[in-house]
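TASK: fixed-backbone design
INPUT:
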């Protein structure tokens, strides 16, 4: 029912992908997401070394036999070459690159039969990624968390614009957190959604309960959150307002998608809420 080119390409049940997280993006969250029918992503930058990445891949394999992705941000990884070879050797079938142009890594991954997804903050860069041979692109709107571009616009602008300009499948990210956002993304031309913030407010996410409660209590009107999300061009969002939880994990901060966080749920509940809500919307549309 939710088949798209992305679910087919990745071998997953639902077109829902969990975002990468520097600092805590490990098997603890990736395993449950994949097991629940989405694509879980392990963030190589969190593990840092090939040995630690191998250990975490072994952990995730003990949690699920479904597909798993690895995120690689070459800009912050001096050992990116070694990490790429580790990913290939470990039999990972999906890699998401982010942060900078990753053409060389993409070529190497594709040569080895790995699906290469590149994450960008603008449609302009999505067009370049397609030219460079990416199999799919994630485009993150300004509502989202993470790397900011001076010319970034909203998800509502990005996805329809990209759908007109590129042929490879588009994955929508930034500000999405519930069934309505999911359906809107698909209607705009995306073939999957990519969720960072809302997967942080799940029981399985390895950050503190206090931080998750802070997310439940927050809203898009919080001035500190707004200053971070709408960080001025050139400012790294995570340097603008450093955060951390009491367990000492460095957390660069959630996005405006926190508007969808009412309570802390399990990964399975979050995915099922989105899918059940989306099915209800589809039924309403079919009747009208
Ligand atoms: C705390 C946090 C840390 C993140 N760290 C990374 C990272 O290391 N690498 C990366 O590619 N994206 C990172 N991101 C961005 C997410 O993968 C994703 O693109 C973004 O959260 C999507 O927007 P949303 O939060 O509105 O869903 C991070 C996001 C958050 C919230």
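OUTPUT:
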């Amino acid at each position: 029912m939710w088949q798209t080119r992305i679910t087919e390409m990745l071998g997953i049940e639902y077109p829902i992908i969990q975002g990468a997280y520097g600092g805590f993006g490990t098997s603890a969250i990736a395993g449950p997401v994949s097991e629940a029918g989405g694509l879980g992503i392990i963030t190589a930058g969190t593990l840092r070394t090939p040995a630690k990445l191998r250990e975490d891949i072994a952990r995730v394999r003990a949690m699920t036999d479904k597909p798993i992705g690895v995120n690689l941000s070459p800009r912050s990884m001096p050992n990116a070459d070694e990490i790429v070879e580790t990913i290939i050797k470990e039999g990972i079938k999906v890699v998401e690159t982010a942060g900078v142009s990753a053409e060389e890594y993409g070529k190497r991954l594709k040569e080895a039969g790995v699906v290469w997804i590149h994450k960008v903050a603008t449609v302009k860069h999505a067009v370049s990624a397609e030219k460079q041979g990416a199999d799919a692109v994630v485009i993150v709107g300004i509502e989202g968390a993470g790397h900011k571009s001076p010319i970034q616009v909203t998800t509502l602008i990005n996805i329809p614009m990209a759908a007109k300009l590129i042929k490879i499948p588009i994955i929508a990210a930034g500000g999405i957190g519930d069934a309505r956002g999911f359906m809107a993304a698909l209607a705009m031309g995306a073939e999957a959604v990519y969720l960072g913030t809302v997967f942080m407010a799940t029981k399985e996410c390895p950050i503190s309960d206090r931080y998750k409660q802070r997310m439940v209590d927050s809203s898009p009107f919080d001035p500190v959150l707004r200053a971070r999300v709408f960080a001025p061009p050139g400012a790294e969002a995570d340097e603008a307002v450093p955060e951390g939880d009491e367990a000492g994990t460095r957390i660069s901060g959630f996005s405006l998608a926190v508007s969808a966080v009412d309570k802390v749920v399990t990964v399975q509940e979050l995915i099922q809420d989105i899918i059940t809500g989306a099915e209800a919307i589809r039924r309403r549309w079919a009747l009208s």
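COMMENT: Strands lie at 16-18, 40-43, 68-72, 94-98, 115-120, 136-140, 170-173, 192-195, 243-244, 250-251.
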